[in-house]
Design brief:
There is one protein chain. The chain is mainly α. It has one domain: Globin-like. Helix content is 59%, strand content 0%. It contains 7 helices and no strands. Helix 2 crosses helix 6. The chain is globular and about 65 Å long. The chain starts with 10 loop residues before the first helix and ends in a 9-residue tail after the last helix. Bound molecules: protoporphyrin IX containing FE. Protoporphyrin IX containing FE (HEM) binds next to helix 3, helix 5, helix 6 and helix 7. GO terms for molecular function: heme binding; metal ion binding; oxygen binding; oxygen carrier activity. Pfam families: Bac_globin. InterPro entries: GlbO/GLB3-like, Globin-like_sf, Globin/Proto, Hemoglobin_trunc.
């Protein structure tokens, strides 16, 4: 019998699966709920459904179940953000809350860096206006 080939472990599994992504997004939305710039951008009074969409998207992106696309279809994130004004200030506020959330996970450095680098790049990519915020 040949030796079993080690299976590549997904990032999703390596960081602890669904529970870790739920913790990440919970901490992130605790910050968003208090944020005077970001909170008014969310159309629904209850942030729960938005938190669920972000959780499922991130789980899928990192190799977990494809539940996000099963319910929402292709992510097309830039298009889905088009109705919202995402300028540098919104991006920086979003990233500040995400930083707290990522740090709270206590991941090993390599995983921490992979997650943070992705989120930072994704946030820069989501910017759709360079106009300074009005009032
Ligand atoms: C750069 C600053 C960002 C701002 C201000 C922002 C804001 C928003 C807002 C207001 C919504 C609508 C809430 C909802 O109904 O779901 C939303 C949705 C969403 N955002 Fe962002 N976002 C940002 C960056 C990102 C990034 C970097 C990602 C991914 C890494 C992301 C992933 C998502 C997802 C998955 C949804 C739900 C899409 C759907 O299925 O409808 N966002 N975002």
């Amino acid at each position: 019998m040949s030796a079993p080939v080690p299976e590549e472990v997904s990032f999703f599994a390596a960081v602890g699966g669904e529970e870790t992504f739920r913790r990440l997004v919970d901490v992130f939305y605790e910050g968003v709920a208090q944020d005077p710039l970001l909170r008014p951008m969310y159309p629904e009074e209850d942030l729960g459904p938005a938190a669920e969409r972000l959780t499922l998207f991130l789980m899928q992106y990192w190799g977990g179940p494809n539940t996000y696309s099963a319910s929402r279809g292709h992510p097309r994130l830039r298009m889905r953000h088009a109705p919202f004004r995402v300028g540098p200030a919104e991006r920086d506020a979003w990233l500040a809350h995400m930083r707290v959330a990522v740090d709270s996970l206590g991941l090993e450095p390599q995983l921490h860096t992979m997650l943070w680098d992705y989120l930072e790049r994704a946030a820069y990519f989501m910017v759709n206006t360079m106009d300074p915020a009005h009032g």
